[in-house]
């Protein structure tokens, strides 16, 4: 089952609604939730499940092509946990890019590299990725599978970790490479406004096949990234075990699991994003996340 937070196309100011989409269906079954609760996206469903009060369906059905998707976790309660250098080929390309402050320790990390993105940088399907030339001239894309935690905990064992996953979505870990290098850390270069497109839906954990799912990214019509989850250096259970060792994971936390080879800095010369570009990410079973790249002032007007 896929879950979607959406606005109806007939009015930009219409209240967000939350629904579910059965596999292969073209209609959304809408949940009967107050607008304020629905606006929290799948966080509202997770909280209700923990309270033993699952959200009821309203009986209303809406055609998928009549809605505008919003990010399924529009405002994470905390920073998004992110993982660097977590695909073998990307670890090699990043180590040779000149932006990797950990390269002296070897291309492939010995333990997960965990950093974060601010919750305010989350943005939905089709929202502009802003290019502010006064701040950065080296904006890169990173296609990633994101985990949504359903059951919190501290000291979660690897063998039990997938039982704590509520579902999955797609994120684009947009990065200002020049800021990443200038500050010798990753928060500023990865948390600029609009730097975390997410969506278009969240897929229930039991409907996602980690063994076979592929992740792909196109910039305009050029396929740049193509990998399977089997190419992760540290798998999802390992990431959950690592992060929860001393940090209590909470329901609704989001973990972005890393990006495959093919990012802009992997090319010689680098292929950075520019206004007029479009970034399209597809993950099997979840769908397609696509966002235009727009000059900053134009992006403000489009938002």
What is the strand and helix layout of this fold?
Elements: E1 2-8, E2 17-21, E3 27-31, H1 35-38, H2 42-51, E4 57-63, E5 67-70, E6 80-84, H3 88-95, E7 113-117, E8 122-123, E9 129-131, E10 139-140, E11 143-149, E12 165-172, E13 175-176, H4 177-183, H5 187-190, E14 196-197, E15 202-204, E16 214-219, E17 222-228, H6 236-243, E18 254-256, E19 278-283, E20 287-295, H7 296-302
CATH architecture of the largest domain: Alpha-Beta Complex
Total domain count: 2
Choose one word for the global shape.
globular
Could you name the CATH homologous superfamily of the largest domain?
Fumarylacetoacetase-like, C-terminal domain
Tell me the number of helical segments per DSSP (H or I, 4 or more residues long): 7
Q: What structural class do helix, strand and pairing data support? A: alpha+beta
Helix content: 10-25%
CATH topology of the largest domain: Fumarylacetoacetate hydrolase, domain 2
Radius of gyration: 19 Å
Describe the main β-sheet briefly.
Answer: 11 strands, mixed
Task: List segments where confidence is low: pLDDT < 50 over at least 5 consecutive residues.
Answer: none
Q: Could you explain the architecture of this structure?
A:
This protein is an alpha+beta fold. The protein has helices at 35-38, 42-51, 88-95, 177-183, 187-190, 236-243, 296-302; strands at 2-8, 17-21, 27-31, 57-63, 67-70, 80-84, 113-117, 122-123, 129-131, 139-140, 143-149, 165-172, 175-176, 196-197, 202-204, 214-219, 222-228, 254-256, 278-283, 287-295. The longest helix is centred in the first third of the chain and has 10 residues, at 42-51. It folds into 2 domains: 2-70, no CATH class; 80-302, Fumarylacetoacetase-like, C-terminal domain (Fumarylacetoacetate hydrolase, domain 2). The protein is built from 7 helices and 20 strands.
